[in-house]
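Sequence in, structure out. Go.
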Amino acid sequence: MADLVAGLDAGFLLTETSTMPWHVLGILILDPSTAPEPLTVSSVRRLIAARLDDIEAFHKVVSPGPLGLWPRWSDGEVDLDWHVQAADLPADADVADLERYAARLAEQPLDRSRPLWEVHVAEHLPDGQVAVIAKMHHALADGVTAIGILAGLLDLEALPPGPATIDLPPPQPPTPPTLSDVPALVLKAGWSAGRAGVRAAERGLRAGRHSFGFMSARTSGHARLTHRRQVALGAMSVDDIKSAKAAYGVTFNDIVLAAITGAARGWLEADHQLPSHALLASVPVSIRSADGDEPLRSRNQVSAIFVSLPVQVDDVAERVRLIGDDTARSKALHEEAGVTTLGDLAAVAPWRMLSALWRAAWWTGAMGKLPPAANLIVSSVPGPTVPLYLGGARLVGLHPIGPLVEGVPLNFTAVSLEHEVDIGVLSCPDLFPDVTDLAQRLPHALDEIIARAPEVAR
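Output:
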């Protein structure tokens, strides 16, 4: 039983389709001028080979499990010549070429006959930089653990490929529920879900706003996903975000959300699609217990809150205030309803049956006809605050790329890296085109937030 895939991990494996692959990407931008030897496919293979035994997730292969009813993990053979490949980019590649290559990787499901990860090395980028693109199935890691896995490949000094020099705590292995656990978990999940529903209804009626997914705006971007993907990379200054945070009296993530709102408003205005009310963002949040008291039912320990992004509001300061208020309300609801509610439900959910229903809706095209639960996904993960190196090359950029969900064709994923917040934007270009322009609007939207900061706070 210990190696059965449980909870959200099973959901990610069983609901995957050809147009909704459940993998994540991390694009590491590296400056090889600090490296004692060139950073190449061969050196990255040597680095991973020296650390492979310590990265448990890199060995995991999924199989159908008992009677083919439930997936399970087993240890598989790692062929580094296959898992670590050279990116097929032109010799004079630029950032746009890298984005297109990452989009192709995002389109292609991982090979389930092998451990569910890949690494692609892109050399000869502008300014001599090298990109390492890591791709991993979401069933193996949530955002926090994915950063931890990447950290296992990084060093605090510019060292050549070799054994790990950063001591990381060993990952806590999941302990899927046994049959004796199920009745108590079902009762807990039912209670949590009922309480969450009551609290959401109460707060929705009191607030009189569409903050909880009941009335998200439908733009032309919402329809059935195709297999195609588009990637764009963006960045914002950590210092500027902190300055705006202090000026407006909101959180760091509120400013990130406000910058995304401003960028989306500008894009929608330019395309003559500005809606009359707010967009709704699904914002994943980590529920990983700091003290480790709760049993780990799956590798993914995440829940979500929903935040209204008031793109229809012209005043920048008012947009920031509304986002701060709505985020606070949504967090309070999440706490009242129980932060483990989603995990409790996922631990006992009949994923095989749910995946059959999901696929039926997918095959019939019903997904594109249902009202969207949200308009976009916005994830934010804290990253390293000190200089880090891969094979001696300094890490100067780290852009995460999250997945898309049926009905939600746009994903912003952000991670902080020393002095900047790096953002990866993913869309389905058949539903939400021109995502490059959207990413380029982010720093300008942040500048506008700072320029309109309340006078009293300056």
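Check: The domain at 7-151 is CATH 3.30.559.10 (Chloramphenicol Acetyltransferase). The longest strand covers residues 23-31.
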